[in-house]
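Table S2 (text version). Query chain:
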Amino acid sequence: MIYEDRETSLIEEKAKKIIGKIFSPKDLDPSILMTLPYQYPKHKITTELTTDEFTCLCPFSGLPDFANLVIEYIPARKLIELKSLKYYLYSFRNVKIYNEHVVNRILQDLKKVLKPCQIKVVGEFTSRGGVKNKVTAFYKKN
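Corresponding structure-token output:
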């Protein structure tokens, strides 16, 4: 393999602990999420992050649920570090969790680490048995 000598980072190791196993939501490790300081806190911007590679497992069948995930937030003082977000989302890969719960869990974990002005997480899951599921969770600071 070309990358045999490549050293893995701590967040990569935490994310990869799920390989070959099935987990429950309590096994997720939000400490993977890292932040950067937002240098323009007086300027309200909207940051939108999307992926069409999100997966988790159906709690009933154990089959994968695929989703297009959109995270949109207005930072207050922190930005999410994208590599850590990638590994955090990857850590859901072998977790049995309902679509509604996974979207809320992502919102809660990001809200805790970022403390944003507002944040919205939308999961648009692929069709199962002819039914498509779109879940939206939203938070706005008072």
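Notes on Table S2: The chain has one domain: 10-140. The mean pLDDT is 92.
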